[in-house]
Specification:
Length: 526
């Protein structure tokens, strides 16, 4: 009968644990086993990625376990002994029960262990005291802010006295929540690089939900529905012509009516814009320059033109121009146009360029503008007739072995890139634009950086091929029994790992992220 006792109590439960990147189908499986029933043993065995196995009991063990759990008086084929008699089965059940009780008398956990797992000295489960959750307190408030406001927008503890001494968090917003920064003390501010804009209809009334949680009682929550009412501010017009700064050229013998440059300014409130000449330097050319408004459709623009017939000396002429809204009065913006008498090299439309390309890109792939799906194009403005050619150099001044540039200004990748081995991952280069006029080359340069970006192309790898843990039977629900770790060679969100158990309802795994270290904590579920 001793052999029957062991056979009836010892069984193996096999459950796979799956470790996957958060947004990938790549997976690594570790096999979890528990045995025996009285003092369970947990282990992880490494196996290749594939379809996880289902919950499995060795052949015959389920029948023996199920038979042992039936009362002696039950009827049916499972209650028959080897000789077909229910008495033999009854005798076997009593012997096994006796041996099981004797086993528990020798191996029963100490009282301190029983208290840890939520049971008293008689093995009865303790019923924890359930704390009653308070109702959430609702508050509403309005705050008027001008669109020009920067920095602090709302101080919630000052506006709502019942929120003092609480921890604040932004729960939702009707506009991009990244626009705002909310301290734990309840001060709401505009984030760096963001501004309110009354002309954007979505920003005229911004609704957000803020939670203020008591620092001493997490069930004590005040939910604040706050509305920011953004008011209009008369803003000065903005010059929108590109590229900037404003550069131009004229010939020494330019006669009257030559258009030096055309400028466009727009008023944020949509008011009409008027233009005027402020000054010309050297002052001897004051009478040779005029600023005239020329409308094209609904766009009010101005042209800076030459008047008179006198020649211009080889020099640089500076022209200061004003743009004013509402024709008279209102707000004013000023700008400067630098005019070179003679020839000038090409001017880039941007003072610097940023691009990005994914690893495993393939040959002859065009680099995208950073943060967009649009192709990055290097563009220049020319001031005289003649084609522009582009060249690309690395930081050392030599030809780049990774990238080249077309005559249209597009940057092409010449090699298949691997993020994990690429160094540096941010490539810094210089583009030179050259225009030949006669036998003279006119050149200018601009800096370009290209970010090599990571793809989610690496499966996670467990730190160990096997994990072991030992626990007693009747462990309390929610008890942590094992922690597993895996690593991913990818970066950022591609390195985020989720753990899961399949094939069991008795255990669960919870993923924890501590300083980008992802762990799976396995605990008793029921």
């Amino acid at each position: 009968m001793a052999g029957l006792f062991v056979f009836a109590l010892v069984y193996i439960l096999t459950v796979p644990i799956v470790c996957v990147p958060s947004d990938s189908k790549d997976a690594v499986v570790r096999q979890l086993s528990f045995s025996p029933a009285s003092y369970k043993h947990a282990e992880f065995r490494g196996r290749s990625a594939g379809s996880p196995e289902q919950l499995h009991f060795p052949h015959g063990h389920q029948n023996n376990m199920r038979a042992n759990s039936r009362p002696a008086s039950a009827s049916g084929p499972h209650n028959q002994g080897v000789d077909g008699s229910s008495e033999a089965q009854h005798e076997g059940f009593e012997i096994q029960q006796s041996l099981h009780n004797d086993f528990n008398s020798h191996f029963r956990p100490p009282l301190d262990r029983l208290s840890q797992v939520g049971r008293d000295e008689f093995g009865r489960r303790r019923i924890p005291h359930l704390r009653r959750r308070r109702a959430v307190t609702q508050e509403t408030m309005n705050q008027t802010v001008p669109e020009s406001q920067l920095g602090e927008l709302v101080n919630f503890p000052q506006k709502l006295l019942n929120t003092a001494g609480r921890r604040f968090s932004l729960n939702s917003s009707s506009v991009n929540p990244e626009m705002f920064e909310l301290t734990s003390g309840g001060v709401l501010s505009l984030g760096s690089g963001y501004r309110l804009d009354y002309e954007d209809s979505a920003m005229r009334s911004i609704t957000m939900v803020v939670h203020a949680v008591s620092t001493s009682d997490p069930t004590d929550v005040v939910e604040i529905t706050a509305t920011l009412l953004v008011t209009d501010v008369d803003e000065a017009p903005v010059f929108t012509t590109e590229p900037q700064p404003f550069l131009a050229t004229i010939r020494a013998n330019s006669g009257a009516g030559y258009t030096i440059i055309t400028l466009v300014a727009e008023d944020p409130e949509g008011a009409p814009v008027s233009y005027s000449k402020i000054s010309v330097s050297p002052s001897q050319y004051e009478d040779r320059i005029e600023v005239r408004r020329t409308d094209v459709g609904n766009v009010r623009q101005c042209e800076i033109r030459t008047v008179g017939t006198a020649n211009f000396d080889p020099d640089t002429i500076t022209i200061n121009v004003a743009a004013r809204d509402r024709d008279t009065g209102g707000r004013e913006a000023t700008t400067t146009v630098s005019v070179l008498v003679g020839l000038r090299p090409p001017q880039f439309y941007s003072s610097s360029y940023q691009g990005a390309i994914l690893e495993n890109n393939g040959l002859d792939r065009t680099v995208n503008a950073l943060g967009t799906s649009a192709k990055l194009q290097i563009r220049t403005k020319t001031f005289q007739e003649g084609a522009v050619t582009y060249t690309l150099a690395n930081q050392g001044g030599g030809d780049s072995d990774l990238f080249s540039i077309s005559n249209a200004g597009y940057i092409i990748c010449r090699k298949v890139l691997d993020y994990e081995t690429a160094s540096p991952k941010l490539q810094s280069m210089t583009v030179t634009a050259t225009q030949r006029v006669g036998n003279t080359d006119f050149s200018s340069t601009v800096g370009v950086t290209i970010q090599i970006e990571d793809m989610n192309d690496n499966p996670p790898i467990f730190n160990q091929s096997r994990y072991d843990a030992t626990l007693v039977e009747n462990v309390a629900v929610g008890t942590d029994i094992l922690t597993v770790k895996a690593q991913d060679l990818d970066t950022g969100v591609n390195a985020h790992i989720d753990y899961s158990l399949v094939g069991t309802e008795d255990f669960e795994v919870v993923t924890h992220n501590t300083s980008s270290v992802f762990e799976g904590v396995i605990r008793i579920k029921r």
